[in-house]
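Quarterly update from the structural biology core.
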Amino acid sequence: MPLLKGANMLQSRVARPRRLAVIGIAGALAFSLAACAESERDAGGGGGEGGTFVFGATGAPSNFDPFFASDGETFRVTRQIFENLVGIKPGTAELEPELAKAWEPSEDGKTWTFELQQGVKFHDGTPFDAEAVCANFERMYTQEGAGSSPALAYYWTENFGGFADGEKPSLYDGCEATGEHTVELKLTRYTADFPTMLSQDSFAMQSPKAMDEYKANDVKAQGDSFVFSEYARQHPTGTGPFVFESYDEANGTITLKRNDDYWGGKAKLDTLIFRIIPNETARKQALEAGEIDGYDFPSPSDWDALEKAGFKVEIRDPFNILYLGITQKDNPALKELKVRQALAHAIDRETLVSSIMPENSEVAKQMYPSSVDGYADDVQEYPHDPEKAKQLLDEAGYSDLTVELWYPTQVTRPYMPNPEAIFGAIKEDLEAAGITVKPVSKPWAGGYVDDVESARAELFLLGWTGDYNSPNNFIGTFFGTTDNQFYTGGSPWGEDLANALDEADSIVDDAEREAAYQDINRDMMSEYLPAIPLSHSPPALVVRSEVEGLVPSPLTKEEFSTVTVAE
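Predicted structure, tokenized:
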């Protein structure tokens, strides 16, 4: 396999990852030991206890090619079909082997050698080997036309940057098969997020034969949407414990079958069905009627009633954040630090968490959870103090401040279970501090996300569920570039913050990198305050009492191969 070269190798900045513990070079060396690299998925024997599990999905998948996806409903399905070089240990955010059983970095952290599992085949019988790995990375790196659009190749552009056309710098510098089951991945610079970023669903390994046969790259733009290939619609082909069977769009059902030739512990289910039910009340009714076996994101107000009715409410550990975003683009008052500090003092986050958010939610003190590396215990805090808020507004010359406060409708997010109620509480707090609030609401998929991403919203509710345990995955996502929802490029410190994040990500020494992120967190809460962290909340799933073996994921990345359903 020829070595594929990235463009503009001297430029270090690529777009930050938008969406596990970070393993530095020293930590990663442990994975070079074969004894430490055995995956838990190898245990479990033959599986195949039988039965069907029907899960109520909140929406339809965009397609079944994970490389061209960025939404949770697509990944919920493809995660059962495909696997990655590295994976996440079930029920945790920790890295574990998957299709690669060991890996080791070069001294400079820019070349990574992966030792692959042997005896693995794709669902079409194609061997999984080093050539297949390089074929996948070559396919990702050489996308062009619609396939290279950030709207489709979202995770590639956010993690690796540019493509082979050389228009933008790329983190990727090549792939080389150095043996049948040994492969080298080369980077243009060191990043603390590698190889953990490879655990993201978009970087799953797919059958080169199937992608070629069914023209996987044949994707075309059509107005504001895309037309996907035959592969992406009907023939997704991975190495995972389930095989794609059909998608009945008319009835909103996706059917997967157990992969009886799976290389690890086989799935216990015969059949896995996703039934698309967008309305949360309708999902609850379908569960109560026995039409489905479980669904995601039950309303926290329903948890007690569901448990009393005999259902299992599986509560995940919180690995997310909800924040009040502040866009510094159109309203000049919001460019003033004292105004942003006034907003922070005006909001009663303790009452918000205790009265509206789910049980065991926590008040957020900085822009990611305390379990993430680089968390600083001594950041500036903003206790609820309406009078202090008024004083700061007066000092800034905006005692008569008027702001738009945006919130989404037709959505429930892990970090935002009841957007309208959260909006109402914040609106009341701001008005108590003398701020005039103009409400703006739009459907989540009907303009809200697009407008927020385009920095049209002055104050807005948004959040993040981490893909892996990395400060870069949280604050790098938000502030690693200056052209973001917050329009930090409009402030003199926006470029400083982006540069500091780049520099921290490139630090090889774990302790030095930890200290650098702690300094960034202190500066973000005292000197910058580009958003107001509000809360961390534990999202839940609910299943029938007959369902066993479901392992809740703090990353909302459940795998269903361990599930059984008693008759």
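The chain has 16 helices and 23 strands.
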